[in-house]
Design a protein that fits this description.
Helices cover 33% and strands 17% of the residues. It is α/β, with parallel strands linked by helices. It has one domain: 3-Layer(aba) Sandwich (Rossmann fold). The strands form two sheets. The protein has a six-stranded mixed β-sheet with strand order 1-2-5-7-6-8, sandwiched between helices. It is globular and about 40 Å long.
Length: 173
C-alpha cells in the first residue's frame, strides 16, 4: 500500500469486506503490507484494525500486497509489500484465521497460463493443502481462503445475502 493509493475504490471494497465479515469473524489487516505511517489513515478509512496478538478468537485476515499473490512454484523471493505466497496464506489459516482475504491483481504475462488459469492454479495449491478458496472477480480481485468447508459456506452465504452477484465468484474447477 502506498499513500498515493489510499482512498481509491479498492479501499471501498476492503471496507465492504470488513462490514460483511464483522459479525462472524472480524477482519484485521496484516501490518507488513501497510507502512507504519499509513496505518492510522488506512484503519480510519476501511475500519480494518491492524492484526496483533490481541484479537478476537474468531477472526479474519486481510492481506493487502501492492500486486498480489505469487503463482505456485514461482521463485520464492522474500515476502515484500508487493507479493505474498500461497504458503503464507495457508500458514495464516493453520494459525487460526477463519478467513484470509488477499488482494490479488497479479497477472503473470511471461508464462503460458491465462489469467483465469493462474487463479485456478492458486486455488488448486490451496486445495492441495486441505484448505478451501474462491475468488471475488472485479476491478479489485480478492482471493478468499478458508481452513474448512464450513467457513467457506458461511462466507458464501454472507456474500449472497449481501447481494454479491454469483458471476463475481469464481470457484475451483
Amino acid at each position: 500500500m502506498k499513500r498515493a493509493y489510499l482512498g481509491d475504490s479498492y479501499d471501498a471494497v476492503k471496507r465492504m469486506w470488513q462490514e460483511l465479515l464483522y459479525d462472524w469473524a472480524p477482519l484485521y489487516a496484516e501490518p507488513r503490507f501497510i507502512p507504519k505511517d499509513l496505518r492510522y489513515d488506512f484503519t480510519k478509512l476501511t475500519r480494518i484494525p491492524m492484526l496483533s496478538d490481541q484479537h478476537l478468537t474468531a477472526y479474519s485476515i486481510l492481506n493487502d500486497p501492492c500486486t498480489g499473490i505469487r503463482l505456485p512454484d514461482e521463485p520464492n523471493q522474500s515476502e515484500r509489500q508487493t507479493h505474498i505466497s500461497i504458503e503464507t496464506i495457508i500458514a495464516q489459516l493453520k494459525n487460526g484465521a477463519q478467513c484470509v482475504v488477499t488482494f490479488d491483481q497479479s497477472h503473470y504475462r511471461n508464462i503460458k497460463l491465462k489469467l483465469n488459469e493462474q487463479r485456478q492454479a492458486k486455488m488448486r495449491r490451496i486445495a492441495d493443502n486441505k484448505c478451501f478458496s474462491f475468488y471475488y472477480i472485479s476491478h479489485a480481485p480478492f482471493l478468499f481462503a478458508f481452513p474448512d468447508k464450513n467457513a467457506l459456506h458461511r462466507v458464501d452465504r454472507i456474500l449472497e445475502a449481501a447481494g454479491i452477484p454469483r458471476n463475481r465468484i469464481e470457484k475451483i474447477a
